[in-house]
Description:
Elements: E1 9-22, E2 25-39, E3 42-44, H1 47-52, E4 56-62, E5 67-71, H2 76-83, H3 86-96, H4 98-112, E6 126-134, E7 140-155, E8 158-168, H5 169-186, H6 188-192, H7 196-203, H8 213-225, E9 228-237, E10 244-259, E11 263-276
Antiparallel strand pairs: 1-2, 2-3, 2-4, 4-5, 6-7, 7-8, 8-9, 9-10, 10-11
Helix pairs in contact: 2-3, 3-4
Amino acid sequence: MKGVGAASDRTTGEIEYVVSKTDDGWRYTGKLLQAETLRNERPFDQPVDEILGGLEIALVVGNGGDVTSVHGYDQVTSRLHELFPATVAEKLEPTLGSEALAARALEDWYARVGDFVGLTVSIGDLRTQTAPYLLPNGNELMSQVETRFAGWEKCPPGRCIRIETHYDSEAAAAIELGARLATAKADPVADAVADPATASAQAGVAPADAASADAEEASTKAAQAKPRLVGNATRIIDPTTMLIYSESQEKTVSVEMQIEGLGPVALTVVETQVYSYEYEQ
Length: 281
């Protein structure tokens, strides 16, 4: 990353969750008890740790596994503006504001638990779907998510299932392109234009073989600036209680960011997360 450089952040934290029964479902309340971030192995003040420290975040979930409400994130945006100058807070809000963090909490819930509630699966089954991912610049990217129910593993309650997940935004884009091509092929207006060169001439536009080098360069730059997500995750889950006993995931995100003083900069973020869980009755 020219003009920016590379950095390695490592965050270790502890979150306490309390699960309580409600009349028509469950309430999951979490609080960040402590967190420490090292950037290139040196202590670093991570904004998200300061913003979320001590806040109680609650998801209210129905018996069917769907989230009915999210509580606690309404204080995040005001904290953001208390901790940082207005210009900095405004730039952080798309990724660290109340709406962004609430959306990410929902995304995490369904990826970890919600999408599996009530499913009947067999070992070896593969499930494919598309899902949104919030990029560091605040935009949303659709990704294809392949989930494989890989096998049984030993865990504290006895036997858990190993779930392996692969994320790829290019695959989602390919599916979308295929759908568009199928629609265009079925469109009688599209079929009526048999010769692209003739159509270009009628419109007063140069044919494709006369495209300038500048246009080709612009196309290449646009392709390079296109965001990309690819990654993998593994979770060990008790299918009876839906409790997770271990979890790891790695995602690589390539995106263009607007950096003050530098303009648009191609940024690649490699995010590795490892979780361990302890449960108390």
